[in-house]
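Long-time lurker. I teach an intro course on protein structure, and each term I like to show students one example going from raw sequence to a predicted 3D structure in C-alpha cell notation. This year I'd like something fresh instead of my usual example. Would anyone be willing to generate the C-alpha cells for the chain below so I can use it in lecture? Attribution to the forum is fine with me.
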Amino acid sequence: MTRFLITGASGLLGLNLALKLAETHQVTGVIHQPELEGTPFEVLVTDLSLPGEAEWVLEHSLPEVIIHCAAMAIVDECEKDPTRAMNVNADLPGRLARLAAEMGAKFVHISTDAVFDGVRGDYKEEDVPNPLSTYARTKLAGEIAVMAENPNALVARVNFFGWSLRGNRSLAEFFYNNLSAGKPVNGFTDVIFCPLLVNDLADLLIRMVEKNLSGLYHSVSREKISKYDFGVQLARKFGFDPELVKPVKVSEGGLLAARSPNLNLDTSKLVHALEMELPGIQPGLKKFHELSDRHYPEMLHGFLAE
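-- Reply from a regular --
Happy to contribute to a lecture. Here you go:
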C-alpha cells in the first residue's frame, strides 16, 4: 500500500483521484477550505503557500507519491490577480517539487494544454509553448520550476471534464446544468480541445506513477472536438435538446483572458510509454452519463461539509 498525498483534494481532479486511490492505497488530501467531510481518506486543511505549511504536511503524511492538483484554475480570475496566480501556479509547485526530491518522494505536477497559443494544433511535448493568458503563463512557469527543482518529476498536461463536489467545476457540468433546465447555452465553434473524463484521467495518472514515468507528457483524450460539438454530443447523450447549444465564436463570449483556438495535443509519447490506447471523448461522455445514472454526483455532493 503506497502512501499518496493529493493537493487540491476538493477540486474536480483531486477529489476523483483521491477517491480512486483510497480504494487500494493510503491517501491524505490537502484542501484550502474546510469543505470536505466523511471522505475515505484523511483530509488536512491548510494553505500550502504559507511559510512552513508544506513542510508540516509532508512531515505529517510522509508520502511516497505527491500528486499536485491544486491550482488557481479560473482563467479570468488569474487575469485579475496575476501575483497570486504566479504564487499558486508557479512558486508553490516548484517548492513542493524540491521538498519531494529532498524526502525521496515521487512528484507529479498537473499542468495544462493552455501553455500553447493554439495557432496550429497537434502539439508535441517538444514544441515551444506560447501561453496567451496569465493562467497559461503561470502554469508554464510552474512546469519550468518543477523540472528545475526535481528532474525526476512527472508533469502531465491535461484537459478534463467530469462530476465535481459542487457540480459546477467542469465544462460538461456547465452544459448539463443549463441544458437540463432547458436554458440555451453558447458553444464555441472555433475552440478545439481534447477533453478526457476525469475518472479516466485518474486511472491514467495512476498507471503513469506505477510505470515510474518522469518528464513531460500530454495526457488528454486521443480525439479532438470543438466546444460546440462537445455540448451537442452531451445534449444528445442525456436526451436534451441539442438546439439549445448555440454556435458562437470565442470572440463573442465576453471572456476577459485570451483563449487558444486549437489545443489538439499529440499523445503518441504517452501511448508508447504506457503501451495502451488512450480513452476517447465519446466513451468518456457515455461514462459521464452512466455515472449520473448511478448517482455518482450525489455521492460526491455528500462529501460537502455543511
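Some talking points for your students: The CA atoms of residues 12 and 169 lie 6 Å apart. The chain has a mean pLDDT of 96.
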